[in-house]
Amino acid sequence: MATSCIRVFADAAHIEHSKQRLAAAAPGLEAVAAVLALAGNDVRLKMLYLLLDQQQLCVCDLADVLQMNVSAISQHLRKLKDGGVVQARKVGQTVFYTLTPALRPVIEPLLGSVSTSLTPAAV
Amino acid sequence: MATSCIRVFADAAHIEHSKQRLAAAAPGLEAVAAVLALAGNDVRLKMLYLLLDQQQLCVCDLADVLQMNVSAISQHLRKLKDGGVVQARKVGQTVFYTLTPALRPVIEPLLGSVSTSLTPAAV
DNA sequence: TTCTTATTTAAGCAAACGCTTAAATAAGAA
DNA sequence: TTCTTATTTAAGCGTTTGCTTAAATAAGAA
Q1: Is strand C in 7 Å reach of the CB of B74?
Q2: Is there a domain that residue A78 lies in?
């Protein structure tokens, strides 16, 4: 630290106010950042997009659509599951993944701009 | 990638449909993922949160509030600027950063859940 | 000019990422 | 049981991240 600014115009009141607000919001911000970090990856965001469209998809389907290694897909799914973004349901030997209901309203707006840009008019 | 699934219940129609939708949405999704990746970092999300509250902040202010090295802050700001999320305005020797007006409506909802959790009732 | 302040940049490095390959599970079919 | 399919896991490896330190710019003050 010892980062303290010397500048004259430093508005100590504003700084202090910001520190307070930040301290209160920090836990929430960190939780949000964790979800955004998961969504902030090309492959994973595409997965979420696909899961939002098709209710459920198995590892194999995703690997097929995304043209990627099944193992790579599985590892991405694990991260999403650990982050509580998706959930798994096993049927026989295949595992179906779904967006977690609780986080669906969090994920949906992240893709809102893309959905709208998919309307006939746009693009 | 010879990833093709052999499974019997593979709904070829759904797979094909998903591939089509994905192909159309891919560019938009990648653009969104880039912004989410920037926001999906504790320090940077806090910066955005602070900038949303205080119209503008200089490097030194942010370093002060976040209790971090000025250099580290500056490097985060460069990423945000390169990503078009914030913009810089130099006044004398100090540089003030602001949320880019165009991306403000994209950033704001990312912090919505945190803001609401700050209302008196919550927490 | 020299001195101080504010910010950026370059270099280095440990940690985290994301993919590949290969092996390990799990479950149904022969 | 053995064989095939679906998925997960472990190990390895090159790339990216994010921080630290130190040096380089930029701009005002003495």
Answers
A1: yes
A2: yes
